[in-house]
Known about the structure:
The protein is an alpha/beta fold. The chain is built from 25 helices and 20 strands. Residues 223-227, 457-480 and 564-577 have low confidence and may be disordered.
Amino acid sequence: MREKDRTELKTKEMMKEFREAGLREEILDAISEMGFEKPTPIQDRTISHLLASDRDLIGLAQTGTGKTAAFGLPIIQRVDPRSRDTQALILCPTRELCMQITKDFNQYSKYLPKISVAAVYGGASIETQIRALKKGVHIVVGTPGRVLDLIYKQCLIIDKISFLVLDEADEMLNMGFKEDLDSILSAATPERQTLLFSATMPREIAQIAKHYMKEPEEISAGQKNVGAENVEHYYYLVHARDRYLALKRISDVNPDIYGIVFCRTREETQDVADKLIADGYNADALHGNLSQAQRDQVMNRFRTGHLQLLVATDVAARGLDVNNLSHVINYNLPDDPDIYLHRSGRTGRAGRSGISVSIIHMKEKSKLRMIEQRSKIRFEQKKVPGGINICEMQLFNLVDKVVNAEVNKTQIERFLPYIYEKLGDLDRDNLIQHFISLEFNRFLEYYRDAPDLNQNIETRKRSDKGWEKENFRDKSKGQKPTRNGKFSRFFINIGSRDNIDKPSMIKLIAQQLRNRNIEIGKVDLMRNFSFFEIDSNFENEAVKAFSGAEFNGRPLNVELSNREAFEPPPRKKFKRK
Ligand code: ADP
Ligand code: MG
């Protein structure tokens, strides 16, 4: 057998499952060029369904499981290139996804008679998009807001479409596109086939399905735990205020880290990224407040490996297709376990192993347990690395780099005599020491006397006092005037340790004051003691009211609290209107 025949046979063999699903040879050739060999689980079940049936479909599968081709390949095959009508409308949440899907579709249809695909999204000139649509477009890929504008302007006609796809439906809802979606779905011809793809299935999605889909077939392919075998889940327990320091240590102990740091809000994203940049890390922020040019630039730098850490919101990270992340870092845990899975599924892809890290504080432990139960994964607690570990890691890394550096003799030859002369006085040991110090002093300096950041019972106990003071100071800032004047603050010698909660504390105070309708202000419950406020006009009554009183057999001690000790420095007086 000739070599050519053999490779052809081999390609045929490889594409067998795609072929059996019913895809045309032209499409098989195109996707084979894209490196596809066999269908992913969601493709396996979706493609043959969509080629053979008009029934609506819900596809649930995590990011990165090939959903675009799952709906894209059969749509490309079923579009009629001879007609000028728009036959498919794909809705997705972001401009980046629109462009990605459009690019993918163009590749799939490379060997077919011309099928035109247009991307329409907000933040770009609507005129240009209108001109493109006027030429007649077979497939439109767009964000809901812009699509709706174009429908209203009657530039986009959707009464002849055969396919309406909601891609990343959950994310579109998160971004507030619910009403736009409702309008588009009700405007589109009822003759269409509706396809909904999502990584998660919240109630709102189920409602959309119920409203706008006809007896949809539900296909869920490895939605849970995709790639989970390859992902290890670690958590670090720290005080909330030490989150950022912990993040720094985690990246310092992994010198070659390449990961996404997930934050909750745009502000937090920007804040963390700014700090990292100021501290000399190779990081940047990706969130919705950036202009599109800025976003493109950040994504490009990250894709090409010029950035090591991308700090991002869930939504902004959606458009990003990167397969070789070493770490996913949850700077904050998401409330929804599915979102956690979704985030962590971004590492451990393509057969590589990945690490998903969560930085949490004590109160978030229950969230962790919930994610474990719902998602059937196990978290392993890790200690935040100390200064010594980090210095060691960085040192090994540096030495490794030196050993592996490529030496280009001819290029450096001419400089060598000078270098030999200059370094001639240093012996081998000295030379090594100097050289290491040059690169390494920054870390040594920073991590000398670095405190232990791990939050455990021990450190917590020791810092309880400081914490309570801080907490108290914080609260007293927001002190409000009473109806009749000011509040006065009192100390009382019982706290949460005595099995009392806020409502019972308020009840106790009211009882002692004989319920004389004296206004009670804030109650700050501490572990061993507490503070409460009452109308200043009744200061003396309060102390008297508690004299001789007991709580569970313990004599109560109430004193006017020492304001000076706790109150913040006087602030500028603000004018009352
Ligand atoms: P999703 O929409 O589920 O997040 P994508 O459709 O963006 O995933 O696909 C993720 C990546 O996997 C893309 O780079 C895509 O080209 C690639 N891919 C998709 N299907 C296959 C396949 N059958 N074989 C190899 N690579 C694939
Ligand atoms: Mg997708």
